[in-house]
Amino acid sequence: MKRRSLSINKTKRFLTFLIFTAILIQPVFVQDRFRKTPPKPQPIDKPDLPLIENYLFTNELSMALVREKSIPIISLGLIIHSGESSSPFELPGLALFTANMLTRGTTNLSSEEIEEKIEYIGGSSSVSIYPDYSIFTLTCLDAYLDEALALLSEMILQPGFSRQEIDNIKRSMYYDLVEKSNDPEFLAKRLLFQILFSGHEYKNIAYSEEVIKNLNRKDLQNFYTSYYHADNATLVMTGNISLAAASNKVSRHFNRWTVSNKEKKTIPAPSTHEKIKFCFLDMPMEKDATIYIGNVLTPISDADYFSFLVLNQVLGGTTNSRLFMNLREQKAYAYYAFSAVEFFNACGIFYINARVRSEVTGTAIKEIMREIEAVVDNKIPNYEIEQSKSYLIGNFPINLERQQNMLLKLSEIKAFELGDSHWNRYYDTVMSIDSDKVFSLPQKSSLLTPVVVIVGDINILIEHLKELEEINVYDKSGTLQYTIKGDENETR
Amino acid sequence: MIKLRFLFLFSVSLSFFLLALPVRCQEIDAFPYQITQYELDNGLQVILVEDFSLPIVSVSVAYNVGSVNERPGKTGIAYLLENLMFQGSKNVGRMQHISLIHRIGGEWNAIPPEENTIFYQTVPSNQLALVLWLESDRMNSLLLTHTRVEQTKNSLIEDLEQRMNSDPYLETSLLFDRLLYPDFSYKNPISAEISDIRNLTVNDIVNFYQTYYIPNNAVLCICGHFDKVQVMEWIERYFSSIPKGEDIPIFESITQMTSKTHTRTVTNPLISAPAFQIGYRIAPPYSEDYYPLVLLEYILLKGKSCRIYKRLMGKAPIAYMLEGGIEKKKDLATFKIFVVANNEVMKDRCLKAVQSEINKLKSNLVSNEEFEKVKNMFKRDYYNQFGTSADITIFLSENYLERQDLQIIQLELSKYLSVKPIQILRAAQKYFEQENVYLDIKIK
Questions:
Q1: Which of B11, B56, B121 to probe by mutation at the A interface, max A CB count within 10 Å?
Q2: Who's near A98: CB < 8 A, 6+ residues apart?
Q3: pLDDT tens-place string over residues A406-444
């Protein structure tokens, strides 16, 4: 008993000592521990993204609204479901020319008056042309939605097509392309598109400045008459307004828009390149080499779309991806090296772009091809797949935050007919992707036979590209000039 | 667990209070969110704004320091330290801050440090604790080793040299600032003297860090989707043990600017088109005359339908480039106009056009219609400051650092919108009597 009591006393004293010591050292200990390692994330719920509401008017103009209450500004986007691929082969640029002209005067308003009106409603505007669609955006303070719709309707339904503005637009389109043609990135991407889409409607997006002179008033009137119809358009809207109020206002301003009843033209899928092809564009005095490597992905299903997004993240989507870590961080060949995946109605396109030191151009291309082979031939480890998914899931809602970005995402859903559940499906679909799904992607083998475009000074680069079997040399307009064989014999 | 939470909650200290801002009211809604603001024992200001529209959250940490706090011979230190904040701290490796944010799909950036230095990031809401951990670690224990400092100096110098090469008008624009502003703090650009950057020592940087990167000189602002009780607990855990620093050196404000005028002609061998810059010293920010001057800026220089743009770049363009507007630095404000023209004759025409537009404002009232347009444009730009949760954190941090009172922002918008045309006329007469600085930039 005694012994026991003693023992208890000792234990008590020891415990008291321990507790006292623990209390004394606790602040330092706790602080060190929580500072040492990053805290674990909390579990994340599936994001609840805003609802897309739809309305179809009697003239078959469709409308989609995402209601959001952040700021008293409304963003409008008018999609015409025809883009540059609808321009005739001999007149690339016609879709952009037409869209630009609609912002430069109506039968009642000059371009200056349009600008004045846009600023009066606290707005801003833009025009963008993609291969499959064209979009006009207009923002306004929400108190001025009626005025904004009236202006947009007047621009689209009553174009002026004044001869003076035609000259102005042609001049600005021409000089815009001249200025861009000093940028090796722009030239390389344009040449890649010209070669990948050779003979296909999508080649129309990759035109050079000399075609601008071919555009005239009659062509633009034809394009306008063919494609600018209510049943070939969708009005998208984001802002703090109900569908009933919004559709009422839209109806008032667009109900006289005519229907074409034309059947929608389906663009066939372009073919995939099945043999690696090296293409060169000479840019004298350029000290580095700009590289674009890409191929067409076809056919592309909804499930493949998400798997390619994950694959792209692993390979080159960010500065943590394999290409950047290898070519820039480890080997110091490149200033940057990324990959990207873009989707159109008829196909997808996967490409890698890098800017490298000229003396390692050949080695860098080999290294990029080695990285491509690694993701095509081997299963990607799970941790990399999970990291990529974490990026995609985390970044998705961040990208929707700005009202204009939400509008553009909504436009994509409508232009590509992705379905209203697309963004709410995003989380589940990305989460369901695993290494096997990416490995079994049927189209990824096309990455092994890409078109390789190199832009730089040919006199500097040629000796670093000796190992290539055949190099096709193009001019800035995308016309093949001559071919250099591996044995350095020139063939014209 | 519950007890622990309460413990943390109650130790969140002192001047905790809620700014119960009015509920959203139609158009004149200067800030449509509720703000919670309090101060930790160590002086760190905390601002919380809940917004549950998307599952994301933004965190900014703003330090009340920038190039205005640099001393002669030590320029570039604010910019250098801003860069070093990404180079690692005691528990965070070099560039790990960026890569951790990036891996979870987050976005990050910093605002070039002129008056304040603001770091911000937007992440999925379940990763908020990670950002607080990262931000607290670099506030608490930035690693400033010789190697890291030298590497960062070199890359900064490279960037600055590139900027000098790509902007042939940069040199003259720095000269223009030296003529327009009254003393070193205001004239000193963020871009700094390259030779100064080369000479900065680790000791200089450690001193600057210890003087200014302290909780009692900082504002932590969080906006987005979060549980307020949980967040306050995390803030307490990560930030409250960072020791309070010494009181920061008092910034010597200049409330009265000189009325001295300068007319200079300089030749610039780098340029291919002549240019001019004119500048006016105007009323201090948020003074009575400042509000009409902001709208005057819209009348003259904002958008494509403003008066000077239409004269110089409109239907029959005579200028090649037009830039300008109000520049605010601490308690001073200036009004600048920069024009590049194709040749000397065109440049003279541009100058006359600019002067004639300014003179019109001194003698004629702005029409109601134009004034309505200008106010609508102002409203648009004002609301666009709340376009994202990161924008909101920046807006609130800057406002707090400038005004030390967030209640003021509720009255701010109406101050601009209640300006009358006569106030514009008076402001033009008072502040645009004659250019304070005219810099004629000729081709060599």
A1: B56
A2: A134, A220, A223, A224, A228
A3: 999 999 999 999 999 888 888 999 999 999 999 999 888
CA distance B342 to chain A (A): 16
CB contact under 8 A, B104 and A390: yes
Paired tokens of A97: 């020319």
User: Nearest CA to CA, how far is A45 from chain B (Å)?
Assistant: 9
Contact B102 A320 (CB under 8 A): yes
Distance CA A489, CA A483 (A): 9
Predicted confidence (pLDDT) per residue in A85-116, tens digit: 999 999 999 999 999 999 999 999 999 999 99
- The alpha-helical segments, DSSP class H, found in A416-457 are 422-432, 435-439
Give B262-443's CATH code, choosing from 2.20.25.100, 1.10.10.10, 3.30.830.10, 3.30.450.40: 3.30.830.10
User: Which ipTM was obtained for this model?
Assistant: 0.88
- Mean predicted confidence (pLDDT) in B56-77: 94
Provide, as residue numbers in chain A, all residues whose Cβ is less than 8 Å from the Cβ of B373. 116, 119-120
Q: Is B206 on the interface with A (CB under 8 A)?
A: no
- Tokens for A152, please give them: 């947009």
State the helix-helix crossing angle for A145-157 and A243-254, rounded to 10 degrees: 40
Which residue stretches of B276-367 are H helix?
290-301, 307-313, 344-363
Mean pLDDT, residues A60-78 taken together: 94
In the prediction, which pLDDT does B256 show?
67
Domain ranges for chain B: 2-239, 262-443
For B354, the 3-state DSSP assignment is helix
Give per-residue pLDDT as tens, A367-408: 999 999 999 999 999 999 999 999 999 999 999 999 999 999
Angstroms from A117 CA to nearest CA on chain B: 8
State the average pLDDT over residues B357-374.
97
A217-227 vs A94-102: helix crossing angle, rounded to 10: 80
Return d(Cα A143, Cα A245) in angstroms, integer. Answer: 13
pLDDT digit string, tens, across residues A156-192? 999 999 999 999 999 999 999 999 999 999 999 999 9
- Determine, for residues A391 and B102 on separate chains, whether the beta-carbon distance falls below 8 Å: yes
This prediction has a pTM of 0.89
Class of domain A52-254: alpha beta
Q: Is CATH 3.30.830.10 the classification given to domain B2-239? A: yes
What is the pLDDT at residue A487?
60
- Is B264 an 8 Å CB contact of chain A? no
Contact with chain A for residue B312, Cβ under 8 A: no
Chain B interface mutation, best of A70, A112, A426, highest count of B Cβ atoms under 10 Å: A70
Which chain B residue is nearest to residue A32, measuring alpha carbons? B91
- Please list every residue in chain B whose beta carbon sits closer than 8 Å to the beta carbon of residue A37: 91
DSSP state of A76: E
CB B233 within 8 A of CB B10: no
Q: How far apart are CA B202 and CA A443, in angstroms?
A: 54
Average pLDDT rounded to a whole number, residues B23-47 = 79
Q: What is the pLDDT of residue A483?
A: 93
What is the per-residue pLDDT across B303-317, written as a single tens digit (0 to 9) for each? 999 999 999 998 889
**Residue among B104, B137, B238 minimizing CB distance to A394:** B104
* Tokens matching residue B61: 């940490």
Task: Locate CATH 3.30.830.10 in chain A.
Answer: 52-254, 277-491
Give the tokens for residue B307. Answer: 């008066």
Considering only the top CATH level, what class is A277-491?
alpha beta
Q: Where are the alpha helices (DSSP H) in A333-381?
A: 361-377
Å between A59 CA and nearest CA of chain B:
33
Q: How far is B387 from chain A (nearest CA, A)?
A: 6
Instruction: With CB atoms and an 8 Å threshold, state whether B102 touches A319.
Output: yes
**How many inter-chain contacts (A to B, CB under 8 Å) are there?**
140
Tokens of B188: 């000193």
